[in-house]
Design goal:
Layout lengths: L8 E6 L4 E8 L6 H4 L9 H15 L6 E9 L10 E5 L3 H5 L1
Parallel strand pairs: 2-3
Antiparallel strand pairs: 1-2, 3-4
């Protein structure tokens, strides 16, 4: 069964090690790290599952010669109170991909 997905951005971390960071842009209110990881009442694991899926896609693609070392959610709307933008980085383990 063919699987596809669209990655928003890929950043090169280490050229020699051939490692990259996969970045997914998110609109709407930023989520806390604990919400993303399912550790709160308001938790929703969809964002985290999406990052795991991107790592899986990259590892299975024979035409993609790089290894996903890190993933990041980049919330593109500023916090209404502080005006600051939020980013959350995650190191997805092979166990989480195999899940």
């Amino acid at each position: 069964m063919p699987l596809t997905g669209k990655i928003d951005r890929i950043d090169l971390i280490d050229k020699d090690a051939k490692t990259v960071r996969v970045v997914d842009y998110k609109t709407g209110s930023a989520k806390t790290r604990n919400q993303i990881l399912g550790k709160t009442k308001e938790a929703n694991l969809d964002y985290f599952r999406q990052l795991v899926f991107y790592k899986l896609l990259a590892s299975l693609d024979k035409n993609f010669p790089l290894k996903v070392k890190e993933t990041m959610l980049d919330f593109v709307e500023p916090n209404k109170k502080t005006g600051k933008f939020k980013q959350e980085k995650f190191l997805i383990t092979d166990d989480e991909v195999d899940g």
